């Protein structure tokens, strides 16, 4: 099991694929490296995929602290690139991973060739804070089952509930395995997120994607990113919700591959 020893902690990572171009994938909030299972076969023929579990996720160590700052997660990813001997990569961040990716681009700009931000936030606004509080309250009141039920309309499109409802029992089982104390520390880091004042510092070629039915990280957030990052491009995926790695993996992979050629 590959582990990076960094700053007194162990961070789990995976490397796969047959391409020469390194593509670093950043997980969403409750994801792990396993969450990219539907997309990996679509990307591995072209890219060298690098996936990691941030602190508080999956198989990585969970140091007990008040929060897991986005800047710390970004620096951990830079340390992984050092460990793998990779000077520069293409980075795609989904949701929480997009927030980390913004901080990575600000702190380690020379490490990036391209940046793709998917279903993410320019800043943690008041609505986002209340959504997170509702998930925490559901976890405390009814455990992972109630928390999963409360999160569903934020994560998926109307079309998904009609066409892919058979996935929900498995997703519920996976949700029950999430370490909630670790997620709470991640959420504490998200509450400090506000990139609006320094988006103009990001100079790497950037592409932004969001689903037209994304209720959790709505279109206005992607528009803020697009307006703030000079030269960036924005694509809206019709009919898609927030969790595009699950409900629109082919479209998501296509956006990643197309931007590699842009």
TrEMBL record:
One Gene Ontology term of the molecular function aspect: hydrolase activity
Pfam (any one): Abhydrolase_6
Domain AB hydrolase-1: 23-254
Cited Gene3D superfamilies: alpha/beta hydrolase
Keyword Hydrolase applies: yes
Keywords: Hydrolase
The protein's name in its UniProt record: Alpha/beta hydrolase fold protein
Lineage: Bacteria, Pseudomonadati, Pseudomonadota, Betaproteobacteria, Neisseriales
